[in-house]
Amino acid sequence: MGVVGAGRVGPALAAALQLAGHRPVAASGVSDSSVRRAAVLLPDVPLVPPAQVMERADLVLLTVPDDALPGLVEGLVETGAVRPGQLLVHTSGRYGTKVLEPALRAGALPLALHPAMTFTGTPVDVQRLAGCSFGVTAPDELRLAAEALVIEMGGEPEWIAEEARPLYHAALALGANHLVTLVAESMELLRDAGVTAPDRMLGPLLGAALDNALRSGDAALTGPVARGDAGTVAAHVAELRKHAPGTVAGYLAMARATADRALAHGLLKPELAEDLLGVLAGGVTAPGGPDGPRGGTTDGAGE
Fold first, then answer.
1. Taking Cα atoms as reference points, which of 64, 58, 63 lies closest to residue 23?
2. Most buried pick, 11, 39, 75, 202, via CB within 10 A?
3. Is residue 230 assigned to a domain?
4. How far apart are CA 219 and CA 70, in angstroms?
């Protein structure tokens, strides 16, 4: 087994496969952080150029950024580095196996195995792979091989059609990557409000919200937007414009999306939606002001 691209993902997956009995023989990586990760997760595995990884390994993990993957595959093929029968596994969420077609024509066996997890580049990633879903795309004749590799890493295979890969990846980015931005902004605002331990305050709230959302979907929506508290939302917008103007656009966009979903699922009463949508359209104060009758609701105030 070899790894081309010793970023956060490759060494962790290789370490998991090593625990399952595969033998890592080479990895490529030139940055200081890549060298450190490889030393921790793949000790005694030599760091060599990609062509030498290809030469030494029968199973090769291509763990490079999405935009770099097509060029890498074409370059490896053009230089004759790809061998017939060699198993090539990329971990890009965006691509299926079509991106590996040049290598397929050279006789390689293509697999797309994308772990639906964020990686830290530390040994904790190997533990987190237990039960992790992998978005898997593979030719019919290689489905068993793909499934076996995922299971060996402790994961659960989820089959994704080639044409559905971009949508699949967009869904994961929307849920995971944007969540980090939302949480980071929320912690900054809490610090500005005088909270000394925003992580401790948010932990139980966000944990419960995530659990409820995974269990119940839109039925888990709570808070002033879902209730139609236009005055409260107007007060939020006013405070954000004053203290953190960079967050206003994101707040309004997410609030509009929340309102749409709450309306569609009968959670937001139509008679309350008009004032609310007016606030969200222009960030203006709702009738009655932020302290008016609709802004004084206290049920679920922590949400």
1. 58
2. 11
3. yes
4. 42
